[in-house]
Amino acid sequence: MRSFVISLLMLWGVAQPAAAQSYQGCNFSEARIIDEAMRSAKDLTLKAAAVVGDTPDYHRWFGTYSQANADEVRANLKAIVTAIRGGGVTAQCDQISQDGCSAGEYAWVYADEPYLIHLCPSFFNLPVLERLQPGSRWSENGTREGTLIHEISHFLRVARTDDHCYSRLICREMASNDATRAIDNADSYQYYTEDVTYFARQPLTNKPPPAPRADR
Asked: What is the pTM of this model?
C-alpha cells in the first residue's frame, strides 16, 4: 500500500500540533476528515470525563454506580484524551481485503500497537456527531468521533477495553446486568460520550427528557 505522512502544519498553515501525528495511505481529503474527527473526539471525551457521576447517563452505559467504578470510568476517558493530545496517533487508511478491512467494518486496532488506528472505507461514510439525529438509522452505527473513541479505548496503554457488545440496545441491557463488563466495553464509552455531550439536550429512546433550561 502506498503510504505517506501529511503534516497538518502544511495543510492549514497553523502552529498547533496535529491531532494525529501521521497518516498512512490517506489522501488529502481523508486526512482532513480524520483530523477534524480526532480533534472533536478529544474535546467531547474531555467533557464526558468532567461529568462522570451518579446520573442516568452513567447508569445507562456503566450500570450500578459506585465511587470506585466511576473513578475507573473517568480515568479511562482521561486516558483517551491523553492519547490524542500526545500527538502519537497514526491513522492508516485501509482498503477492504482479506488481511485488512471487512465489508461494513469502520475501524480496527491491535491493542498492543499504540496508537495505530486502521480506518476502513466505511468510516468516511459515518456522520459527524453534530449531524447525527436521535432515532435515525445512523444512531446504531455511531459517528466518526465515537468510532475513534471506541478504538483508542482498546489500546493497552489507554483503557484496555474489549468488545463485549455492540449496539445501543444490547450494550444498555448488558450495563443493567453486568457493570464490570460494561466498564470494560469499548462501545459503552462511545455511547456515554455521545449522550452526555451532543445528546444531552435531545430526546433519546428510553432516556427521560432533560430538565427545562432556565431562560437567560
From this structure: 0.82
